[in-house]
Write a structure and sequence with these properties.
Blueprint: H1 19-31, E1 39-44, H2 48-61, E2 66-69, H3 79-87, E3 95-99, H4 102-113, E4 117-118, E5 123-129, E6 137-144, E7 151-152
Parallel strand pairs: 1-2, 1-3
Antiparallel strand pairs: 4-7, 5-6
Helix pairs in contact: 1-2
Length: about 160
């Protein structure tokens, strides 16, 4: 899950969701609520916009599982940090939701599925994988508030 639209703040870490961003999160979670019932663990960036997004999502989902803030999912994360994160997860314990930022989410999807795609604000993407490891996953669906289709690219730089 990618966080909703944000506003300005004195620091990047403090950027919060706008009212439109909150509406996006509510809409997308309600749209896919049945698909989210199996989520047992949530991992997220510590940035305010992501924790705000998950506060809304977990409330709507009536989520009672484990929610972990992981520094490796912070905006601007590096490949080594994402590999560290992936090694720390185990989907055998139940479905996992990861919520982060454009660069992190796109790189994770590329690593896990080999698919180079754009993940818009306020969107959900579902990957089926027996393990969170390179090349082990398959994209089942992507849903965004705008209804946009999965945007596949040839190079990650195409997304910028």
């Amino acid at each position: 899950m990618r966080h909703g639209i944000t506003g300005d703040a004195s620091t990047d870490a403090e950027r919060a969701l706008t009212s439109k961003g909150r509406e996006e999160v509510v809409k997308i979670v309600r749209l896919k609520l049945d698909e989210l019932t199996g989520v047992k663990h949530i991992y997220s960036s510590p940035m305010k916009r992501v924790t705000d997004t998950l506060d809304i999502a977990t409330n709507l989902m009536k989520f009672e599982g484990e929610r972990v803030v992981d520094q490796n999912l912070t905006t601007g994360c590096r490949l080594s940090e994402l590999n560290t994160f992936m090694a720390s997860t185990d989907p055998a314990d139940g479905d996992i939701m990861i919520s982060s930022h454009q660069s992190c989410t796109s790189i994770l999807v590329l690593l896990i599925t080999g698919e180079d795609i754009l993940i818009p604000n306020g969107s959900l993407l579902c990957i089926e994988a027996d393990e969170v490891a390179q090349g082990k996953g398959k994209i089942l669906w992507q849903e965004s508030v705008s209804g946009a289709q999965v945007k596949r690219t040839e190079f990650f730089a195409d997304q910028i």
